[in-house]
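Appendix B. One record, verbatim.
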Amino acid sequence: MSHEVGTVARLVDRLVVMFPGQGSQSVGMGCDLCAADPLMRETYVRASDVLGYDVEGLCSEGSAEQLGRTDFAQPALLAASVGMFRMLQRDGLRFSVGMGHSLGEFSALVATGAVGFEDALRLVRRRGDEMLHAAEANPGGMAAVIGLDDAAVEALCAEQDGVWPANFNSPGQVVVSGREAALHDLAEKAKAAGARRVIPLAVSGAFHSPLVEPALGPLKLAFERTPWRAPDPGFFSTSSVAFESAGFPELLQRQLVSPVRFTQSVKSLCAAGYDSFMEVGPGAVLTGLVKRIQPQAEVVRVSDAETYAAVRADGRYLEDT
């Protein structure tokens, strides 16, 4: 038993809990856990009360198109991720750092105690609405550039009007945002520069770029009126690539129009000794990215009943197992 406790203590000191962003949603997410665990179901019920619609019903019976809409995807992903986190926390999860990819930062802020779950739901619902309106005002899209390094993609964006780096996801995978014509031109230049592929993404706007600026004004007051607390454990921002303990209204506004620097964030945390990562939430996107960024890091995920049971059986991450 003493060996097991020591192992847990070491993992606590090194463990980063990370939460996925938009794109990880899928029909059925969280529903197997709802059927098996009252805490997951209660989380969806709380979310439904705040949002005014049946979140579990949306996840289980809604169409992929509806669930993929920015204004529905963001609150549903937050609810699913926080529900899974609450189950792990109840069962003894302890960690040192919370982080997230774009929308996932709101889940991380809930997990680190910086904002309440209901307040986060209201914010992401408003965030999704305003991002959708901004996309209608400034039409655009996003594309993943595969096979070029970060600096090469940044240089191409600097040379092309109307397109910007949006997500530094892993070495050789950078997502860019921009106007459709500019994205087409950049794709041709990227292929000429040696990119293996340039893949258009199924999104409704040019997120994490200046084209989303119309969302900032309406969101400013919502962010400022929300009660914020100092996070505990620590919160690491994939926008600023730093630990942040205050100033969340300003940080989350900047995040909307700035790139997600996930690659740099994982490298920075690993360099500081945080070399174990647990993805909590639907899908396995971040797990795959960490494996490419830092192959020697320990990575585990909880995304459904099967992976939750595996973490419980493992016994290293939950103090009460």
